[in-house]
Amino acid sequence: MDTVGTVAVVGTGTMGQGIAQVALVAGHRVRLHDVAPERAAQTAAAIGHRLDRLVEKGQLTAEEQAAAAARLHPAGELGELADADLVVEAILEDLGAKQQLFSALESVVSERCLLATNTSSLSVTAIAAALRFPGRCVGLHFFNPAPLLPLVEVVSGHATDPSAADRAYDLATAWGKTPVRCADTPGFIVNRVARPFYAEAFRVYEERAADPATLDAVLRECGGFRMGPFQLTDLIGQDVNEAVTTSVWDSFFQDPKFTPSLAQRRLVQSGQLGRKSGQGWYGYGPEDEPSPAPHTAAACPAPEAVEVHGDLGPAAVLPELLAGAGIKADRVGVTGQGYIALPGGGRLLLANGYAPQGPEIHFDLALDYRTAARIALAPADPVSAGDRRAATGLFQALGKQVSVIEPVPGLIVARTVAMLADFAVDALARSVATEEDIDTAMRLGVNYPRGPLEWGDALGPEWVEQVLRRLHACYPTGRYAPSQALLRRKLRRQDAQS
Asked: Which has the closest alpha carbon to 156: 128, 194, 191?
């Protein structure tokens, strides 16, 4: 695909417009087609306005804008796409409609023309099944907004010719994108591995352990995620996110690991779809209407001294931070179950998959305890009011805001990250993509602070497995059972260390 080749985009919704703009700016002739002929002309005008804004921002010269606009042509009939070297389909997510479109395209375009689908949830193999030459069909999954987000998943269906996948990969690279290769599996990389990011927060909310604003704040300010799942699904659209979740769940024969959220289903059924409807998890009214605030504990005095027992694992830096904050932290042993003993007899433990019991107060996993701005605490019911205040004041002395939630197993960040790591390891073991491509896809496609494989290895497969086994004991449905791939990864790591 050289810069003078012709790219056709079928479907003029948000994704079609974005893909067309990417191809135009890269120097291609672009033909736009929509089942409603007037939509193609309207979309061409809208893209022209977008190019004007790029000139205003200094991202295009006036000459480049004029040349790009001259290369953009609405196409009223499919026959006008006959000279296309690539056709990207971006129509509705309906298998029959996509198959019908590609079958019609095959009778119009040349044998060399590459046929690409931007589907996010349907099988590329099934879409290509309608073709006489299915080897030319490949998934080219952009992320919204396509002109801005760098990731493109290049998906090979069962019959996709390797040369077709190579052409699609090279084209995405030439367009300035970061392509990753993946197999034709439900959800591909991102929409498969990302399910727990939404599902775990929704599960904690359904158990009424915390409200959406608090859950979002903890995942952002403690877990390091760019947006919380409630914010993000309101932005995406609850109907869109729930449809992808349901599609992946159905494609995996309703595996409990992918079970959708009943709370989200109720939002969709009530028409509360997020920003586009004015109401989702949050309301979107006048600009001066305040957003819901996360639960944040009032200021409490920090204890003067604590005892640090055993190995704190991923929270091993806490004694150093306590000393820096002027809290005396006496070390009592360096092995065994780690906890921080509070003056009143309470024990601060890193979330471990169990619900806190007896004198325990669990604190959540942080991406980096040095820089985390918020921490979640979950005290067991018997914990005294004095120890609750002491635990809160301890983390406030470290510069953290504290959100106290109900004693739910695994808290928020810990259970989410453990599930993400397990999903990623399972995808790797099933040859969905390479290790590098999985982590790249999750960083660039959904802005995770670390790739889930890298994150899981930093925490240790042993820690991830332990959290999941304990969650499985609390919720024996199969949802949290560690994958066999995770167990093998743990054993290989132990062998390498021995």
From this structure: 128
What residue segments make up the domains of the chain, in order of their start?
6-184, 305-404
Cα separation, 44 vs 130, in Å, equals: 30
Read off φ and ψ for residue 313, nearest 5 degrees: 60, -130
Catalytic residue annotation: 120, 141, 153, 191
Note the pLDDT tens digit of each residue in 444-466: 999 999 999 999 999 999 999 99
Of 58, 57, 82, 78, the C-alpha closest to 6 is: 82
Percent of the chain with pLDDT over 90: 93
Q: What is the pLDDT of residues 30-68, one digit of tens each?
A: 999 999 878 999 999 999 999 999 999 999 999 999 999
CA 213 to chain centre: 18
In the predicted model, what is the mean pLDDT of residues 212-219?
98
In this structure, are residues 240 and 199 in contact, taking their beta carbons and an 8 Å threshold?
no
Three state DSSP letters for 300-369: CCCCCEEEEEEECHHHCCHHHHHHHCCCEEEEEEEEEECEEECCCCCEEEECCCCCCCCCEEEECCCCCC
C-alpha dist (Å) from residue 143 to 16, 18, 128, 178, 179: 11, 9, 21, 11, 11
Task: Report, as an integer, the average pLDDT of 211-228.
Answer: 98
Task: Specify the CATH superfamily of domain 6-184.
Answer: NAD(P)-binding Rossmann-like Domain (3.40.50.720)
Tell me the longest C-alpha to C-alpha distance in the chain: 79
| Helix runs in 190-317, H state only | 190-193, 195-206, 212-221, 229-236, 238-251, 262-269
The sheet with strand 178-183 has its strands ordered as 72-75, 29-33, 6-10, 86-89, 114-117, 137-142, 151-156, 178-183
pLDDT value at residue 37:
78
